[in-house]
């Protein structure tokens, strides 16, 4: 392997390129194949303006999604009493960590850069980032069905009318999920009167299945992984014209539902003394499963902040599907199994063996890099953030904390801030969260 080549792809773990250069060995770092924490810096990253101009999803699509969310707010306020106060806004706060705690996250090379948390674990109703993508796709479906039936949807509250509910009762929303997407789709689907069927992978937590069943969704438990659950659901849905499949592996609508978060974020950021520029960029750490949520948000952020933002995706060492897909440089799907990894991780929201090709196509030139992190690191940060400032995170949601140090030490510029996007955990009750903390302590003990 030519040395320049290997260095370029090795991220922060150079000097380990002795492995045989197989057909993909050149582009996927050997440390990734060994399941070791790695920072892969994207060699294809391009200036934002240029990269965005080349994409099939454009600024007008993003603008429509942002407008849609505003228009759906009155409906959401009517469907969910807890949203009445916010006027139906599905949004989360930014939380700045203290200088001491920021320093703990960034480590000795952190140069006193502040750390800010985007608290999507507190998103109302669904308690995870899936409230953005999953809700949006079901809302868009409902509006399309209502329009087709001749209803005037200029006031979104018509979608909660008895007439609309009767229409939706003849339709079923389906999805395949490791837990949170199914929960979000099932929740909004049922709230609007749809039938809902969720195909859960082996990773899904029991309580998520039980809670879905309790709201009248059908839960189909699969013995296989996430890709299998999706595949099954997709096939069943294809055979039924009354059935709509929310396809996490291939959905532009879902992507745009997430992307709209960038507008909310940009507005909140403007109120803080943080001013991203290309010379002092904002680094945003996004936990990544199939790629839809981090991909949509990265896309949205690039539209708002351009080269002043560096999106970094964070994946478990056993399931770095987006890293593998992007690094492979191929158009065909490449899974983590193809390079000998197991997809076994306690971070159930990120336990995905193969990335969304749609997402990889959109963000291939936008993502600064992908970091892989161990389960023990995620557990460490769950416990640390529970102690102070008292966050209740699920394991997946803590991934972003673990990528700050490797990214900080790889940068040649001083960033204006690190943003850690915490993506889920808000629907855990005390017992469930105690269980996560107990597993965190066990993981720390076995280190
Ligand atoms: C779904 C999810 C993610 C990642 O989203 P993808 O669209 O699968 O990449 C991250 N964290 C949590 C908690 C999730 O539920």
What does the secondary structure layout of this molecule look like, with pairings?
Elements: H1 3-9, H2 30-33, E1 39-41, H3 48-53, H4 59-79, E2 94-96, H5 99-106, E3 115-119, H6 130-148, H7 162-168, E4 172-177, H8 180-192, E5 195-200, H9 206-214, E6 218-221, H10 226-238, E7 243-246, H11 252-259, H12 261-270, E8 282-287, H13 292-305, E9 309-316, H14 321-328, H15 357-363, E10 369-373, H16 375-387, H17 399-410, E11 417-422, H18 430-445
Parallel strand pairs: 3-11, 4-5, 4-7, 5-6, 8-9, 8-11, 9-10
Antiparallel strand pairs: 1-10, 2-3
The structure holds pyridoxal-5'-phosphate (PLP).
Give structural notes.
The structure is a single chain. The protein has helices at residues 3-9, 30-33, 48-53, 59-79, 99-106, 130-148, 162-168, 180-192, 206-214, 226-238, 252-259, 261-270, 292-305, 321-328, 357-363, 375-387, 399-410, 430-445, and strands at 39-41, 94-96, 115-119, 172-177, 195-200, 218-221, 243-246, 282-287, 309-316, 369-373, 417-422. By secondary structure, it is of the alpha/beta class. The strands form 2 sheets. The chain has a 7-stranded mixed sheet, sandwiched between helices. A 4-stranded parallel sheet has the order 6-5-4-7, sandwiched between helices. Strand 4 (172-177), helix 8 and strand 5 form a beta-alpha-beta unit. 55% of the residues are buried. Bound molecules: pyridoxal-5'-phosphate.
């Amino acid at each position: 392997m030519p040395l320049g080549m290997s260095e370029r792809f090795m991220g922060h773990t150079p000097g380990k390129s002795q492995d045989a250069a197989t057909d993909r060995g050149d582009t996927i770092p050997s440390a990734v194949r060994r399941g070791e924490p790695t920072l892969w810096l994207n060699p294809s990253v391009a200036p934002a303006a240029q990269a965005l101009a080349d994409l099939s999803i454009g600024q007008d699509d993003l603008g429509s999604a942002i407008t849609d969310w505003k228009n759906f707010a009155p409906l959401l306020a009517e469907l969910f009493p807890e949203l009445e106060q916010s006027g139906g806004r599905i949004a989360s706060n930014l939380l700045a960590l203290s200088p001491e705690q920021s320093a703990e996250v960034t480590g000795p090379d952190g140069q006193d850069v502040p750390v800010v948390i985007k608290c999507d674990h507190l998103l109302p109703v669904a308690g995870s980032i899936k409230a953005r993508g999953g809700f949006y796709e079901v809302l868009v479906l409902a509006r399309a069905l209502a329009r087709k039936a001749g209803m005037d949807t200029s006031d979104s509250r018509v979608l909660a009318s008895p007439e609309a509910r009767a229409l939706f009762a003849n339709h079923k929303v389906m999805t395949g999920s490791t837990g949170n997407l199914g929960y979000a789709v099932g929740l909004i689907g049922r709230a609007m009167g749809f039938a809902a069927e969720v195909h859960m992978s082996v990773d899904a937590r029991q309580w998520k299945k039980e809670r879905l069943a309790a709201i009248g969704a059908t839960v189909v438990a699969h013995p296989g992984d996430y890709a299998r659950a999706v595949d099954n659901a997709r096939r069943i849905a294809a055979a039924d014209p009354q059935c709509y499949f929310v396809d996490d592996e291939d959905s532009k609508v879902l992507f745009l539902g997430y992307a709209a978060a960038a507008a909310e974020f940009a507005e909140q950021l403007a109120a803080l003394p943080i001013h991203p520029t290309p010379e002092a960029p904002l680094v945003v750490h996004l936990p990544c499963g199939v790629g839809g949520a981090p991909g949509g948000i990265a896309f949205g952020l690039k539209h708002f902040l351009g080269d002043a933002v560096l999106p970094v995706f964070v994946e478990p060492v056993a399931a770095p599907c987006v890293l593998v897909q992007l690094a492979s440089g191929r158009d065909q799907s490449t899974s983590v199994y193809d390079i000998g990894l197991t997809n076994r991780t306690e971070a159930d929201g990120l336990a995905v063996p193969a990335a969304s090709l749609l997402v990889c196509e959109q963000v291939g030139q936008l993502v600064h890099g992908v970091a892989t992190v161990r389960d023990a690191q995620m557990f460490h940060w769950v416990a640390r953030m529970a102690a102070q400032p008292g966050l209740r995170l699920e394991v997946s949601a803590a991934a972003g904390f673990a990528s700050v140090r490797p990214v900080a030490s790889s940068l040649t510029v001083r960033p204006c801030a690190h943003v850690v996007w915490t993506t889920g955990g808000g629907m855990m009750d005390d017992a469930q969260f105690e269980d996560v903390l107990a597993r965190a302590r066990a993981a720390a003990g076995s280190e």
